[in-house]
Every structure is written in structure tokens, then in C-alpha cells.
Amino acid sequence: IQSTITLNNGTVIPQIGLGVFQTPDGDVTVNAVQTALEAGYRHIDTAMIYRNEASVGEGIRRSSVPRGDIFLTTKLWNDDIRVHRAKDAFQESLDRLGVDYVDLYLIHWPADGWQRAWDDMQEIYASGRAKTIGVSNFHEHHLDELLSNSDVTPAADQIESSPQFPNQALIDAVHAKGIAVEAWSPLGGTGGNLLSSPDLARIGAKYGKSPAQVVIRWHIQRGVVVLPKSTHADRIRQNLDVFDFMLSDEDMARVSALATGVRNGSDPDDFAF
Ligand code: A2P
């Protein structure tokens, strides 16, 4: 049975979602989404800048899963934040996805102008076309600024987290504010070498699980939402098959000990795109 987390407005989010960053638009994305939904996923995480929203929508429609059973996230891109076109950008995302609401709409990065975008997102939320709203790549200081100027607490902050860069202090700070954490690049990202770690193989062997399954389970037990990406049907299925075992405290610590302190992506205080 899949685990869920209840967000701060009562909305329930499945703890594993299919990530589609760098999943090419067209059949690859359509098939990944359809495969995931038919394998039991009920949560898909995309973004305008992934340029595959239309294919995500197509994958949803080709599956036999009703829209209402699916938790769908997309994100407002930096260029739209900077020129204050959150509402138009949101409508364009809905149109590409072919849906009349999303379950979660996120500010993708704290780009200049995000404060005004957050005001627009509160209006979108009030309209019911986004069931929840949140942020991504926000540090604690961004959240503090937002919270002192907002009526709505973000439901989630989607940030980089993997065994190599657990980001645990930020996770703890975000949780303390009643905000859920979602982990991007949870498996160390594309081109990473995390999954070839002999430590993960050794731990996995004890439970009859792969390194990827160990890492996904580690995220689940830390109470974060985890968004593994794969374009391969067997891996998509495997990545959801993590609810029949539990890592011991010792093994949780062994996974956490893989931390290098090196990010896979950009520091939100330092990004330039
Ligand atoms: P692929 O899409 O070719 O399967 P992240 O989710 O951290 O961004 O990392 C995803 C990377 O890990 C992708 O390169 C993906 O490649 C690979 N990956 C995803 N699931 C698995 C798995 N179960 N076993 C091995 N590699 C995986």
C-alpha cells in the first residue's frame, strides 16, 4: 500500500511521484506517464520548463486512471516570474496539460519578482484551479519572507535532496513551519554515480532490493515526498515497489553517511537561469 502525506490544507499527496525532468516531449514522456499510472503511481511532477506538459496530459488520458485520482504538479518558470505573468503562464500550463486544475502549482525558483508571483498564485488558489500552491528551491530565508507577507502558507517546498546531498537541516526547518518537503534528484540525478555505490548494493541485498529502492525507501522514512525519474518501464515499476520493507535505523544512517555535501544542481541563492 502506498504511503501519503497530508498537506497543510488537508489535501493528500502520494509520497512517491513520477518525476519527468529531462524526459523528452513526445512518446517517451507519454509512455512513462502511462506506464507509471498503470503500475499504480497516482502522482506526476512536471514543470513548464520541462517542455513536456502536453505529453504528460496525453499519458494521463491514455491511462485508464481517472483525472480525479491523480495528483498532478506543475511549476511557474523564472522568465514568467520576472515579467509578472503568473496567471497567463498558469493558464497556458493548464491548456498544454489539457486539464482544468492542477493539484499543486509551484514557484519553480525564487527568481526576482517571486513575491508578486506568490500574490497571483494565491488568487489562482482561491479560484480552485490549483488545489494547493507552494514553492520550489526556497531556502529558509525565502520562506520566512514569504510567510511574513502571505495569508496562505505554501503547502510544499520542493528542494534538492539525495543521499549525497541530504539537505537535512533545510528539511527540518521546512517541516517545522508545517510545510511538506519534496525531494528532486532523489536518486542523485541523471549522470550521477550514486546508484553504483557498493554500500547501497550491500544494504539492498539484505532486503532483496536494488540500490534505487533503498534510496527511495530512505526518503520515505525521512517523511519527504520523493520524485524519482525514469524513462524505463521496469525501473518505473521497481521504484514504486518499496512498501514491503523497512530500513533499520542502522541502515538509514548508512545511507545518510553517503553525504558528500556537494549539490547536484544549483544553490537557490546562486542560480542564474
Ligand atoms: P533512466 O531514466 O534511464 O532510468 P533522479 O530521479 O535523481 O533525477 O535520477 C534519475 C536517474 O536515475 C536517471 O538517470 C534514471 O535513468 C536513473 N534511474 C531511475 N530509476 C532507476 C533504477 N531503479 N535503477 C537504476 N537507475 C535508475
Automatic annotation (TrEMBL):
It holds the Pfam family Aldo_ket_red. Belongs to the aldo/keto reductase family. The record marks 75 as: Lowers pKa of active site Tyr. Substrate binds at residue 108. InterPro entries: AKR, Aldo/ket_reductase_CS, NAD(P)_OxRdtase_dom_sf, NADP_OxRdtase_dom. Gene3D superfamilies: NADP-dependent oxidoreductase domain. Keywords: NADP, Oxidoreductase. This is Aldo/keto reductase. One of its GO terms (molecular function) is oxidoreductase activity, acting on the CH-OH group of donors, NAD or NADP as acceptor. SUPFAM superfamilies: NAD(P)-linked oxidoreductase. PANTHER family: 2,5-DIKETO-D-GLUCONIC ACID REDUCTASE (PTHR43827), NADP-DEPENDENT OXIDOREDUCTASE DOMAIN-CONTAINING PROTEIN (PTHR43827:SF3). It comes from the Bacteria. Residues 16-258 form the NADP-dependent oxidoreductase domain. The active site is at residue 50.
